[in-house]
Amino acid sequence: MPNVYQQSFSLLEALWQPLVQHGIIEKASAPMLASWITQNIGASFPSSASEESARRRAYTAYHSWNEYRAGDFDKYFWGADTANEGAASNDAHSKETPGLAQLLPPALFDELCRMLSTTRDARIPERPYASFNDQTEGLWFYGFHQFDHVSSTDEPPKLQDQVCQRGIGPGGQLVLRSRPFGDLVLDARDLDDYRDDFDTKALLKEQTTADNLDDKRMTFLMLFMQGKKNSKLNETFLWNQQYKGNRLDTLMDTRRLGSDSSTEDDMRTSVRQALDLTVCLSFAAAREVEKQLGAATAREELLGALLNAEVREPAAAPGTGEPLLDASERTQLMNACTWPDSALGIAATTTCAIVRLLLGASPSAFDALFDHFDYLEQGGVSAMLDFKNGYLREVAAWGDVLDMRDADNERFSYSDLYVAPEFEQRPVPGAAASTSSDPRAANPACIVARMPGRARLLVQAGSGMGKTTYVKGLAAGIARMRISGDGTLFNTLTRHEAAAPLMDCTPVLIAQPEAALAGKGFEVLESTRPELSSDEFASLLYRQLPDALKAPFRTASNGDKQAALELFRNLLKAPDSLVIVDSIDEVPLAVRNRYIDCLADLAEDPRYNIQRLIVTSRPLEDASELKLENATAGNVVRLLPFDRSRQRDLFERLRQNHPEDDAQAIAFEDIAETPGFDSLLGNPLLLTALVRSLLRNPHATAFNVLDTLVELLPKLPEQDVYDDQVLAHIAFDMTANAGGDSIDERTFREWYQTYRVKARDAARLGTTVSELGREDVIDRMVTRRGILTLRNGQVAFEHTIVRALFACRHVLNALTYGVSSNISQEQYDNACGLYRALLDVCIDPGRDDAAAGLALLLLLSARQAYGTWLYEDLQTDVYRDLCGLTLNAFGEHQYRHEVAVKLIRASHTFDFGLPCQRNEQIKVWESRLVAFADYYAADEVVVSEREHNRVGRISTASHAGDTPAAAHPEDR
Length: 972
Prior knowledge:
Oligomer: single chain
Radius of gyration: 44 Å
Strand content: 5-15%
Low-confidence stretches: 83-95, 963-972
């Protein structure tokens, strides 16, 4: 591991890397660094007089303390409220703009202040030369104070720290080594008397006293200025000699900030110099980056440069070193720490980390940064990191289990069954189109990862298409990668390297309430309630979470509800969070628009500043859909129905995970070729449930399987027992009467209210029932049921076969509803009338509605759910009518014959390759039809042969001139 001095330099160097990366400078140099300090910090004692008046004689070359001018650099050090006071509060939480005094622990800050001094004094005394009988309040020219450590050799003396008093003044004045001292110009004539008259060696060997202090000062300057122009005798020249042309060059050459070497008096001078330079150069560099790139950009660039700093040897080329922080350390710092929101804040963080390194408080750059944030948060960073790790473990665990939406206890993982869908990204008006021809690049994770700035995306598809499966798996994949480094699930979901940046995120999955709580708890969003603040809406999001998603927060907070809520809010605010809001369509329609508005406000709130947001939803009615698209900046991705290849892949996975031997009895073609079911196979949830149903019972009928499938789609807290009957009535009317795939919303709601009253009346509950509002009807029957859509004011079934099922249910309801043991002739006749209304649609060449024929096939397939003693008679009548049409429909009714034949043939394979069950009477009818058809076909052959022979005989006789004989009766 690089030593602390190399690591400290790498941290400091990161602060000017944005200027290199943007090509503003090629590389940093000592003169450049010095100029930044000069321009952005300035001298401790700047002159306010003209240059002529600034020329002073030696005996008046003093800087009084009141000449010091505090500025932004002092605020950076002491804090905005205490600059230049020298007694700054150490409470970082009490300062609007904290300085180093608040950002460092008190003991560490006191040690820093002590180390900034060139003497053993913690502060420069108010009268620095009082021990020499000089009561002046301030510092003499360039801070020279005593020269006991000056070499007495013939070589020119050096500007050592021990002869130049630096540190913190009595009033908090920052008189530091690395910033210019002042701009006094000394009159060189004062040195003339010392050029020849003094024995310099003997004088410098003497102990400094009040009597020889002035002589030593002048002798030192005389020796130092030998060979130099008198005009150079000024504080600016001396500072340039000491730092610009000396120590900064050494810094850049060695790429080390400080060293183990020290002076004989154990002053640790090298570390003192390094700390001094860190305090000054960090401020100056950050301010320079701000001036060049702008405040907002500077902050982001400095943070990126700091996290990606490298350690390399002096001769090594840039980019060839090793990372100062490994990937795991970078991730932890981004995840657990709340970084400052300004460039100077990043610089102060860097300074605090270097102070910790150089003073031995932390062993590495990562520990120094982590310990810094942990101190500021009073242990909260460690707690947050522990929480995040626990949270990620929970997400990795529950997120890998597929929700099968049935009552079975079987558990399947993504590796067992997941088949990646195809996505389609809708072009955003005015935005540049994607340049990638790879369809995998339309994966939501790839889109979010490559979005510049704040990423917003809507993932849209119908019920059962895999929206929740995708985002739940994405969250689990990221969590697993973060916890164990296993990227298998993440790669299975994303399938493209463009998504890799999301592996550094913390997924925050926000789902809607389930089961009995679905659609409840949104009262605070009602139009009569006050507007919600971002914190209040975040609280609502947390309250609405299913228990499985609340568990990590409850565990981490030891059951403290308020603490759990704060953890959730902090997770939303974390810069690395990927916030996923699933199933907005399940929010009640009455408050959905307000929910979307609050979500948009939360995402843009500077206190939350959500960087990445994914929202999933079924297609919504027009107003909500437009609002949701606006909230996601028009970025929309659709999950496309499974193509045949994906359908087969999922089918094979399901069959391979079914241990029973009879799994091989089911063929994909048997399902795909069943009339009406083809559209369902593009829906992965329905295909999964369908295949699993057949694997459990290979002899299951099409009706019973479909009857089970549609019960998987609704997400309702409580279901009105009459809603299914009402929907069946509506489906029947749409098929038998309306003659179309959809009806307008108003008609749908009117039918719903009317049929709901009739259903209650039939159950002898009376007709007194409150009429539901529009939002309630649409929520219960459309949005949350999963089988209907509302688009452009029209309500429609998503799948024709589902409308056929409900139309079929309506016919069967006429036999069963309200009957305890016996069925009346009136009920049976009513059911027959309904069935024949469907048959009339089938045989009408002007009505092109496949649902009617599918409803008849489902009638023939119906089994136990409605009682065999009730439906066999009706099925017998259906077959009787179809058989009759095959015989009696001809001429202008030939179409009826063709429809009847088609339906009878379809009934022989409609139960997924197996025939619909028939009683003996029906079998006799069909066998007689087949026998008659065979006889008719054979008779046609015989007649054809005889006709052919007869024509032949006539032809022969004609050629012979004979008169043809009368045809034999048998020939006729």
